[in-house]
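fyi for ur records
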Amino acid sequence: MSEIDFAIRARRLVTPQSVEPACVHVHDGRISAVTTFDSYPAGCKLVEVGDDAVLMPGLVDTHVHINEPGRSDWEGFATATRAAAAGGVTTLVDMPLNSIPPATTVEGFQTKLAAARDQCHVDVGFWGGVVPGNTSELARLWDAGVVGFKCFLIHSGVDEFPNVNEEELREAMPQLARLGAVLIVHAELPGPISRTGIPACHEMDGTSVGKNMTDRNVCPTSYDTFLRSRPREAENEAIALMIRLSRETRAKVHIVHHSSADAIVLLRDARAEGLKITAETCPHYLHFAAEDIPDRATEFKCCPPIRERENREQLWQALNDGVIDMIVSDHSPCPPELKCREDGDFMQAWGGISSLQLRLPVVWTEAQQRGYTINDLVNWLCRAPSNLVGLGQNKGAIAAGYDADFVIWNTNEELTVSADMLQHRHKLTPYNGERLKGMVETTFLRGEKIYDRGEFKRGANGRLLLRQQI
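which gave:
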């Protein structure tokens, strides 16, 4: 029997193969063995998981906007990673934008690393950015430790992270293919959006609101106006472009926060062709429906938008079919005043949803109603995100050799979301008041209990995960 620091056992322990009674041996922050329920050394410290709870791998969230440095009044590493720990997330990957400077140069990336150091309650990796004119920085960023690269095909919402066009992608993608780096893409093209005749928020000022949006059919406080301003065609055409460029350059492409069910057939055919294309969706696209969103409720605004109920069900089917690989949060907070709740103006409000702490109960609430299993959850919330960023041998599974990252959660206990339970900096979220199923009880990071029933047990001992050290 190998040396162990402690053992943890559960009647419902999620292994890569099944949910079964088992015991995990932990040594030096890693899993040394997974054995039968009653197999552990005499006298060792034993953690017992209650019969009504599940022990599964810590969640991995590869789509989080932390915004520090530069916009830490929106969110910061300390608050975001506390929210992650409270939600059973033990590893997250921070987006390269909304911070100032963005991670589009090595210098910008180093500034971000300095801001994150000694603040993180969970392990944190980092995306780099692809913007016009920074192709010469990509190899340097890769060597500096980013796990991959993010680009926008449409205005990102912040001027310091401009979007790229097809010509600029043709310059960058061969370089990414040579590096073996994945390009994650905000896949909306501006053409279909412009054709709606509804001005996007970054195009608008007070004059243009009055000039272009006085018609009742384009009322800025109507969710329907916003929904029509970001049509499915914008995603469909963007995904078709990325499939074509992936075919030509052989670069790995990942579609972020996918919402248009119309494009699922394109993704399915690309995968069948053997192209290296993956996709994610988000809890808000799987839980909410456009028909239920009230006018003026700008906390629901995100881009691409939450679409209709029939679209939602097709996204669930795409998860079932393996066309969509994973579910990540796209936690994108801002100060409440930027959500324009007082005016209820969807067209001026910041587009982003705060949900980092809630991914597990939101997805479980919907998944169990549709007959999906806890193993499905682990694939969508742990394994697939780990594989996307090269962590698949360390994170996302309870197996020998993996980091001892665990979440204990009760599948049947219900919770009502309220502001006072949320750990991220700003509490405005469309989930406020939602009744969800699946209560996170305890979170372990590399064998150390970091969160337990509302209390944080350790300081900021999360690691910064640089690619070359993974």
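The first helix runs from residue 77 to 86. thats all i got for now
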